[in-house]
Design goal:
This protein folds into two domains: about 100 residues; about 170 residues, Orthogonal Bundle (hpI Integrase, Chain A). Helix 4 packs antiparallel against helix 5 and helix 8 runs antiparallel to helix 9. About 25% of the residues are buried. The protein is mostly helical and about 350 residues long. The protein has a three-stranded antiparallel β-sheet with strand order 1-2-3. GO terms for molecular function: DNA binding. Belongs to the 'phage' integrase family. Keywords: DNA recombination, DNA-binding. This is Integrase.
């Protein structure tokens, strides 16, 4: 065979022009053909990837999702992230639903399923950022969270609230602490996390303001009565708190945890059957105060009193123009407590 017949001939000008047109239509530059593709990182298993993501998220996120990440590790630990399908995720979610512990306030395991899917989406969100998986191949995106049912919480009637405060002040091993906790939440409508994060340096006795640091990294100054401010300062100092230490503390000087709240409401439920039946918790105090503020001072003041901002699921842009200031919040607080406030 002639060697000339086995050697590819050089492309003609017409062929080169055709190739250029094809590459242009495909959005490919000639230099792209010479680039060496980067090797794709190996796909990790759930057992290896979950600890990495757990170390990257915030403490609050880790606390909520860790239960479900542990469950995923137990079931899928040896599997790679790109193996499970949307159908398998749905089956896993159904197993979560049927195995959830039945409580008196249970709602069919909907909350557990919601947290499971959110925990899985968190893992895959990081996997997408690291280009381990594409959005189209992400199975967690293809499974819907269960629709949230309306909350059963509501404002507590004034006579019922008096009963709650009476039980806290007359029972238990530390009535002073429990009464202070209830007054703090009733006056400020703060969340449990905000109360636990409160430090001595966050108290401004001169202006009767406390700095609340709550979920979503929100930080705000909240007015309190002079009675509550005096109680917080005296409580913290008498129990050995320094400027950077938590305000709410046990008699032995140790800072309280969320377990104190659990014990408090279990005791209240034991003495008040209606509180046990309705599963009343600290968050009901937030509902109670904000409902009162809204009824008496309007939506804008209640929204500011709650510490909500423009990114918290609002219904329209009008809320930008009805934002209440600190003086208006203090005026509502003064009416609530019957004590004048320096910011009025």
């Amino acid at each position: 065979m002639n060697a000339a017949t086995t050697t590819a001939s050089a492309p003609s000008a017409v062929e080169l022009d055709a190739a250029r047109v094809l590459l242009e239509r495909l959005g490919i530059k000639p230099e792209d053909l010479l680039a060496v593709p980067k090797p794709k990182p190996p796909m990790p298993t759930f057992a290896k990837y979950i600890p990495a993501v757990s170390g990257a998220v915030r403490e609050g996120t880790r606390r909520v999702y860790s239960t479900y990440w542990n469950r995923i590790c137990a079931e899928w630990g040896d599997r790679h992230l790109d193996e499970p399908t949307a159908l398998e995720v749905e089956k896993f979610a159904e197993n979560i639903r049927t195995s959830v512990r039945v409580r008196s306030n249970a709602r069919g395991g909907r909350g557990a399923v919601e947290h499971f899917i959110a925990a899985l989406r968190c893992l895959y969100r990081y996997a997408e950022k690291e280009q381990l998986i594409s959005a189209a191949d992400n199975p967690a995106r293809k499974v819907d969270k269960p629709r949230r049912l309306p909350s059963t919480r509501c404002a507590i009637a004034s006579n019922r609230l008096a009963e709650v405060n009476h039980v806290a002040a007359t029972t238990g091993d530390d009535p002073e602490l429990d009464s202070l906790i209830l007054r703090l939440h009733t006056e400020t409508a703060c969340r449990r996390g905000g109360a636990l994060a409160l430090r001595l340096r966050d108290l401004d006795p001169q202006q009767c303001l406390i700095m609340l640091r709550e979920k979503g990294d929100t930080v705000r100054w909240q007015p309190v009565s002079s009675t509550l401010m005096h109680g917080l300062v005296a409580h913290a100092k008498s129990r050995g708190a320094g400027p950077d230490d938590q305000v709410l503390r046990y008699r032995n000087g140790n800072p309280i945890t969320s377990r104190r709240y659990d014990h408090l409401w279990r005791r209240i439920a034991k003495h008040l059957p209606w509180a046990a039946a309705q599963q009343v918790t600290t968050h009901w105090l937030r509902y109670t105060t904000l409902t009162w503020v809204e009824r008496n001072f309007g939506y804008g003041v209640a929204r500011a009193f709650a510490g909500h901002n423009d990114q918290v699921g609002d219904t329209g842009s009008t809320t930008t123009y009805i934002r209440a200031n600190l003086q208006e919040i203090a005026r509502a607080l003064a009416a609530l407590t019957g004590e004048p406030h320096p910011s009025e």
